[in-house]
Design goal:
Order of helices and strands: HHHHHHHH
Number of domains: 1
Largest sheet: none
Radius of gyration: 20 Å
Low-confidence stretches: 1-18
Length: about 160
Amino acid sequence: MLSRRATLAVGCAALAACAAPPPAEIGAVTEYLECIDCATVALRPVVALGDTAVPLLRRALERGPSPERVARERAYATDAHERIRRYAAQHPSLPHIAVDTVFVADAVMRLDARIRLRAARALLQIGTREAVAVVCRVSQRPPSVRIGTALRDLIRDAGLRC
C-alpha cells in the first residue's frame, strides 16, 4: 500500500500529465479556431481528438481569444483601417468609413464570436456528455446576447436540449 505522500505524488504527476495536451493536438484545435475559410475541413481532426480536445475548446468558448490574439487582431484592424482611410481620402466619392475605434472594436467582436462559436460547434460535434455540458452551461450565461442566441441555435440545430 502506498503512503499518503506517495499517493499524492502519483496523483499530482498524473494530473500534470493530463493538464497540457500534446502540441499536435493544440495545433489542430488552434488551426480550426483560427481558420477563416476551412472550418469544415479543419473540424474533422478536432472532432477525432474527442474528449482530449474538450479542455482547449472549453477555454476558447468560455474565454474567447487569448489577449495576445486580440492584440494581433487589434493591430491588424488598426492597420487595415488606416489603409482604407488613405484610399478613401483619394477617392471622395466612396461612402464614409467607420471611425477607427468602431472599426477596430467590430473586428475584435467578430474574432471573439468566431472563436467562441467554432469552439461550441466542435464541442457539439464531439458530442460527449462533458462536451455538450460545456456548451449548455455557457449558453445559460453567455458572454453576450449575440453569442447566447447563436449558442441556443447551435444546440437546437444539433437536436439537443439543455
